[in-house]
Design a protein that fits this description.
Shape: globular
Number of strands: 0
Structural class: mainly alpha
Low-confidence stretches: 178-186, 188-194, 397-403
Order of helices and strands: HHHHHHHHHHHHHHHH
Helix content: over 70%
Radius of gyration: 20 Å
Amino acid sequence: MITLGHAMTHWYPATFFVLLPLIGKELGLSYSQIGLVMTCQYVAGAVSNVPGGMLADTIGRKGLLMALSLFWIGFPYLLIGFTHSYPALLLCVSLVGIGNNLWHPTAIPTLAQRYPERKGLVLSLHGMGGNAGDALAPLAVGALLVTFSWREIVVMNAAPGALMACAILAGMGSLRLAGKRRTQGGAHPVQPDADRQSMQEYAQGFKGLLKNRLLILLAASSAFRSMTQATLLTFLPVFLAYEMGYSPLWVGACMFLLQAAGFLASPLAGHLSDRMGRKRIIMSSMALSGLMMAGMAFAGRSPAFIFLIALVGFFLYAIRPVLQAWLLDATPKKMGGTSIGILFGMQAVGSSIGPVVGGVLADRYGIMTTFWFLAGVIVVANLFVFLIPASNAGAAPSGARAS
């Protein structure tokens, strides 16, 4: 249920990325203005992530928080269908950024605590839900654009999220984080109030997080990785539509290719990180992501560009659950929501900077310069992981390795 809900949280942004070139043409937006649209969403996310983590750590009803988050994501996209001005568009996407960042601090620690010895794999399955939403939405929207306008689509698109929010509320409205006892399969049973803590306890735990060097380095690395991802998702559809002349259907198909590769890579990377350690998987995936994006800049408008899209998706998306699992390995369980909130807050900061910088580069030097920029950014992300000491490399527990 949580994985299906995660798919819907990604469905809406993935829909919007395909519609953004059409919205940009209708409103007469430049590359920089298109980049600023996504920047506003991520700035709102950066501001709301840590408060979202605090709610997740201090409020017991996780199912209620997830249902609220899902509703809050879908409703502003519905409002976009009625906007006719650039400022109104910026306001709507900012509201999306707030709702989207309540989901992860709630859902990810919930899954990690229920399956503590298989964090990498379980969080990769959760990530696969996001990849599925990211992959299927562009295909669906590209096909619908043959018949409907983009405004009609955003109105119709409100229904799936509303239904999923109701399903989560009905099925998991009373869900709370696990206690200490374990059942067969490594899962923890639900024990009411096991995850609550006083504000004094929370304040002490928060001070400890701010002194956690591993958390800081991982969050900084993830900020640059997310800068790469957000800028790529913003300008890849624009490049395919404006520079290569692809129809909305083919733009959707290319975005599907990017996400489908990530869908395949996520469980493999999560499983290997449980066995081999987190650092090795992350560094190799980031290095290969940089090579693939440099290859995209070299390929230009040739058919090889499409092939490289899939390779970028495979390596770039593989490491999301690994980063999350590593972070939760190194932080207290009671502060899991805030830890993820800090991680996603830093990611939102990076994501807010990338699109507007990419837009300025595209306006001044051509859109291919943006892909060179992304290749350099992912190298910086890898440097932060390199600085993490070998003793904190996120190696799998000895029991997991032996099995």
